[in-house]
Design goal:
By secondary structure, this protein is α/β, with parallel strands linked by helices. Helix content is about 40%, strand content about 20%. It starts with 6 loop residues before the first strand and ends in a 5-residue tail after the last helix.
C-alpha cells in the first residue's frame, strides 16, 4: 500500500481533529473532501460554532472540498461514499459531551452510533478497500478506570500500583460500568467499527482518544476543557471545577500527533484493531495543574470555584497506555509536549484565531 492516500473523506472536518486532518493531508498533496454541518453550534451554542475554522480551511487548503452533509442522512452518506470512492475515511464527527447526551439522548445516539453505522455500511457497499479510521474515546471504558487503586497527592490523583503506572491499556473491560449516555453511544459505534473489521474484513481502526486538543478546538464548558480554560483566562471569565478536588488527571495529545497516528495505520492496516491514543504519562496533568499552567502562560489569575458534584461516569485518573500503538507503529511518537500545546493555545487566542 502507498504511504499516502490519494483521496480522503473526513467527517467532522471543521472540528478539532477533522480540521487537523484536512490541513495535514492537503499539505501532503492529498485530495480531501470534508463533511460537516456545524452541528456543534447546535449542541453548544456560539462557543461551539466551527464556521470560523471552516472559513480558514477554505482559504488555506487548495485541495479541500466541503460538503454540509449530516451523517444521520443515510441516503446522502451512501451516495457520497459511492461517488467519491475514497482511499481513506477519517470519521471524527460526533456529539462529544457527557452532559448534553443526557439532555438530548436521541440526537446523541443518532449522531454517534447510527451516523457511524451509516458510514461503515457505505464503505462496505461502495469502497470496501478503504481504510476506515474511527475516532472513539476513552469514555468507552466508563468509570471502570476508577476501580484502579489510587493515591491522593498534593495536586493530583495517582495510580497506587506500580503495574498501572503506564496507564490504561486496551485490555480493560468496557462492560458493566457506568459510561454516561455519551459513553454508551460511543461504545456502540466503537464495537460496530471493530465488527466491520473482524466480520467483514473492512480495514477499520478504532482510536480511543484521551484528551484531544489543539488551537483549532472550539472548546466549551461541556467539552474541550483545556482549550476552554484558556478561553476563560483570555476573556476574564469564571471556571467551575466539578468534583474530585480538581485533582482528576487527563493526558493531553495534540491533534497533529493524532493525525500522524492515522497515517501510520494507513501504511499497515490491521482490520478491527483498537488503540488507546492520548498524551500518555508525559503529557498528563490534573485540572489543578492545568489551571497552574494557564496562569503561568497567560500571566493572569484564573477565577475558579469548586463544586462537589462530579460528572457521572467521569474518570478520576486516566492516562493512556500507548505501548500497543508504539509496538505496532514504532515510527510514531508524541512530538508535542503539554507545555508547547498550552503555549500554542494562548498564542492562538491572542492572535484572534489567526
Amino acid at each position: 500500500m502507498s504511504s499516502l492516500p490519494a483521496k480522503v473523506l473526513v467527517t467532522g472536518s471543521s472540528g478539532l481533529i477533522g480540521s487537523e486532518a484536512v490541513r495535514s493531508l492537503d499539505a501532503l498533496g492529498v485530495q480531501v473532501f470534508g463533511v460537516d454541518n456545524n452541528m456543534r453550534a447546535d449542541f453548544f451554542g456560539p462557543a461551539g460554532d466551527t464556521s470560523w475554522n471552516l472559513a480558514k480551511l477554505k482559504e488555506k487548503c487548495s485541495r479541500f472540498t466541503h460538503c454540509p452533509l449530516d451523517i444521520r442522512d443515510r441516503a446522502g452518506v451512501l451516495k457520497l461514499v459511492a461517488e467519491l470512492q475514497p482511499d481513506m475515511i477519517v470519521h471524527t464527527a460526533a456529539q462529544p459531551s457527557h452532559d448534553l447526551a443526557a439532555d438530548r439522548p436521541f440526537d446523541d445516539f443518532d449522531v454517534n452510533a447510527v451516523g457511524t453505522l451509516n458510514l461503515l455500511e457505505a464503505a462496505r457497499q461502495s469502497a470496501g478497500d478503504t481504510v476506515f479510521i474511527h475516532m472513539s474515546t476513552n469514555k468507552v471504558y466508563g468509570d471502570r478506570p476508577n476501580t484502579l487503586p489510587l493515591v491522593e497527592l498534593e495536586t493530583r490523583w495517582e495510580y497506587a500500583d506500580e503495574c498501572d503506572y503506564g496507564g490504561v491499556s486496551e485490555t480493560m473491560s468496557i462492560d458493566q460500568s457506568m459510561h454516561s449516555l455519551f459513553g454508551a453511544s460511543k461504545v456502540a459505534a466503537d464495537v460496530m467499527a471493530q465488527e466491520y473489521g473482524k466480520y467483514f474484513g473492512l480495514k477499520t481502526c478504532i482510536f480511543r482518544g484521551g484528551c484531544l486538543t489543539g488551537s483549532s478546538h472550539s472548546g466549551a464548558q461541556q467539552h474541550g476543557f483545556l482549550n476552554y480554560l484558556f478561553k476563560v483566562a483570555s476573556e476574564g471569565g469564571h471556571y467551575t471545577i466539578f468534583g474530585y478536588k480538581g485533582k482528576q488527571v487527563r493526558d493531553q495529545i495534540h491533534s497533529e500527533d493524532v493525525v500522524k497516528a492515522m497515517l501510520a495505520y494507513f501504511t499497515n492496516p490491521q482490520p478491527g484493531e483498537v488503540y488507546n491514543l492520548g498524551g500518555g504519562r508525559e503529557n498528563s496533568a490534573s485540572v489543578l495543574e492545568c489551571i497552574g499552567l494557564v496562569e503561568q502562560i497567560s500571566g493572569k489569575k484564573l477565577s475558579h470555584s469548586y463544586s462537589d458534584n462530579a460528572r457521572k461516569g467521569d474518570h478520576i485518573c486516566y492516562i493512556s497506555d500507548l505501548s500497543k500503538l508504539k509496538q505496532h507503529f514504532p515510527g510514531w511518537l508524541i512530538t508535542r509536549s503539554l507545555d508547547s500545546i498550552c503555549q500554542e493555545m494562548w498564542d492562538s487566542l491572542n492572535d484572534n484565531r489567526g
